[in-house]
Design brief:
Length: 128
């Protein structure tokens, strides 16, 4: 698990290899990840959007931007957590992801960026 705190918001990531799949006559490697967003600040915050950089050892960088996470824009009060799961397909057994969440602080009404630390995606059978 990797974790990072930005402005009192702790992001923790847990990853898992889910298996191989054929899609469009090519093999793909499926990974899941669980993100926990913990509000360690004194203010309520809301997650508005996300930005991902997905690195695949056999492909170019893929950028994904979108509103909320899995169709939600959670409000996280001080001391509370929001956890969600998602995943990605890579064309190789190795890759990584990193990014950020755009959030708003309800007390100051200011937007801010919370870093999602780089986390590695690796199929166990491909490791030395």
């Amino acid at each position: 698990m990797v974790s990072q705190i930005t402005r009192g918001i702790k992001i923790s990531v847990l990853t898992s290899f889910e298996g191989t799949y054929f899609k469009n006559y090519k093999i793909h490697f499926a990974f899941s990840y669980e993100i926990t967003i913990e509000n360690q600040s004194k203010d309520s915050v809301q997650l508005n959007s996300r930005h991902w950089e997905i690195y695949d050892s056999l492909n170019d960088l893929e950028i994904v931007d979108g509103e909320g996470v899995i169709g939600k824009k959670p409000v996280i009060k001080p001391g509370e957590k929001h956890t969600y799961s998602s995943g990605c397909l890579l064309s190789s057994p190795f890759g990584a992801m990193r990014g950020y969440f755009n959030m708003i602080n309800f007390t100051s009404t200011r937007s801010f960026r919370v870093i999602i630390p780089t986390f590695r995606l690796s199929a166990p059978f491909a490791l030395n």
